[in-house]
Design a protein that fits this description.
The structure is a homodimer. The first copy, chain A, is an alpha/beta fold. The first copy, chain A, has one domain: Ribokinase (UDP-N-acetylmuramoyl-L-alanine:D-glutamate ligase, 3-Layer(aba) Sandwich), CATH 3.40.1190.20. In chain A, 35% of the residues lie in helices and 26% in strands. Chain A contains ten helices and 13 strands. In chain A, the strands form two sheets. A nine-stranded mixed β-sheet of chain A has the order 5-4-1-8-9-10-11-12-13, sandwiched between helices. In chain A, helix 3 links the parallel strand 8 and strand 9. In chain A, helix 6 packs across helix 7 and helix 8 runs antiparallel to helix 9. Chain A is globular. The interface between A and B is medium-sized, with 34 and 34 residues.
Chain lengths: 304, 304
């Protein structure tokens, strides 16, 4: 079934303790689309770039089954650019540069064909843009997931909450769950966040894995311990893309399916961090992904 | 089979965001012995206290099958006292007071009956004391586990390494694994630490669970997400006690058994943090522990 995603399509400059890249293709919607494409070839992308964005990368997305009719290409303008540097503890990073460029006045316009998409993944963006996308849908999608971050909680909490109210699944990290809920315990945070609208909560904990909360149930998807972690950029978006790509393919929003989606998302994210940018997740095949999923199963397997 | 443990038996004063206690019974060997007692009633304790230590608590240990003939009681002296305050992020704490008292010149002397113990759990203590215990063993135990901390890495790394060389299992936290190995990746850290002697490495990550490394295998035991975490003090020792208590009972140092031991240790630790000090782990029964273990199984269970 069709998966609509909105998010940035952009350039990144990244420095980690293991290397540095000056200008590579990134952006939440890029990672989401590539990851989702391993499960689903009916992806509707909503975003904006300048005319500096490489055609080769757009063509690569098209080949993966990503519809780009919702991608605005602004003549004479520049694509969004983000630059960041990771600490030795790669769970933290400093933002060095944020050039909004085309993103400054981005007004997402959904092509007619997008408006009945079955699944929606709202990538991390200003809540106003996420809301504009939902407002244009002609029917209530089967499942709406939303990613966001502490930045929007700091400067636009009220508006953010009006969007959160309309989604089924919220994906945030542990600190953000604490900030949003005002609760320290993640179990208590989940209960509080459920009163805000979402039925499902995914708490991403980077190298410590991810938790899925649903009613009184909790599922813990570990992160794969890796020998080489070069660049965590995009891991959360890759997780979300794998997660929603799997859900859109499987067609049923059951807890059991969502647990599998957590593992597929975690598997994709585990590839993502092994190289810079989208390098590692672009050339994957189904067999490699299934192999990694088996490793996840083995990682937590025990018998009593 | 018999389990020998050495570590502190002491008083703690603890402040967490959720409360404060002035002087309660604590110490690594206390937590280890109580946790292990749910699996094993042949525990040989080596430690030292002053004559200020409550008889009621010593009797409680005896009732659990803990032999106290290796516990020195120093007349006119005071027991070890530690006081700490946890940050809002309960993974960090500041030590406020460390009164060594009887621990300052502690020379562990093993009763004859202890010297052929099958299993040994060296609780966190100065490496010299841990070494003295091993030196007195009359036969190589089936399995020796050792806990330590960054403090000893800072001030006594060389001596620490001579003890690490002699143990089968090292249990440390993620930052300590990085400090000891000089490697950021925990997979790389494990490989490095294996060259130092241990065949098994347990990396404790607090609320993020624990990892067991053995050769090229990795097992991830999650921590139970809890609604109320009052006090993390002793959780690592409780984990170690449950782990080694289970191993001593099961009698075989296989990887499969060790995975089960990780889950039992994690289950005990999950009780520990729900109340201050040893309050939560003292009144448990087998049924409660098995119930918690089932919850752990459910937490990570998925089918592909």
């Amino acid at each position: 079934m069709s998966l609509l995603t909105v998010g940035t399509v952009a350039f990144d400059a990244i420095e980690t303790p293991f290397g540095k890249v000056d200008k590579i293709v990134g952006g939440a919607a890029t990672y989401i689309s590539i990851a989702a494409s391993y499960f689903n070839n009916d992806i509707n992308l909503v975003s904006v770039v300048g005319d500096d964005f490489p055609n080769a990368d757009l063509n690569d997305l098209k080949k993966r089954g990503v519809d780009l009719s919702g991608l605005q290409i602004k003549k004479g303008e520049k694509s969004f650019f983000w630059s960041g540097k990771y600490h030795d503890n790669m769970n933290k990073r400093d933002t060095l540069v944020t050039d909004l460029n085309v993103l400054a006045d981005f007004d997402p316009v959904l092509p007619e064909a997008y408006k009945k998409s079955d699944y929606v993944m709202l990538g991390n963006l200003t809540p106003a843009v996420q809301k504009r996308v939902l407002d244009q849908m002609k029917k209530r999608p089967k499942l709406v997931a939303m990613d966001t971050m502490n930045f929007w909680m700091d400067i636009a909490m009220d508006e953010l909450k009006t969007v959160i109210k309309r989604v089924d699944i919220l994906t945030i990290n542990d600190e953000e769950a604490r900030q949003l809920s005002g609760k320290y315990s993640l179990v208590a945070a989940a209960k509080e966040i459920f009163t805000m609208g979402p039925k499902f909560l995914v708490i991403k904990k980077g190298e410590h894995g991810a938790l899925l909360f649903y009613k009184d149930e909790i599922f813990y998807a570990p992160a794969m311990p890796l020998e080489t972690v070069y660049d965590p950029t995009g891991a959360g978006d890759t997780f979300a893309g794998g997660f929603m790509g799997y859900m859109a393919q499987s067609g049923r929003a059951s807890f059991a399916n969502m647990k599998r989606a957590m593992i597929y998302g975690s598997a994709l994210a585990s590839f993502c961090v092994e190289q810079f940018g989208t390098e590692a997740i672009k050339p994957l095949d189904k067999k490699q992904i299934d192999e990694r999923v088996k490793q996840f199963a083995k990682l937590v397997q025990f018998s009593m």
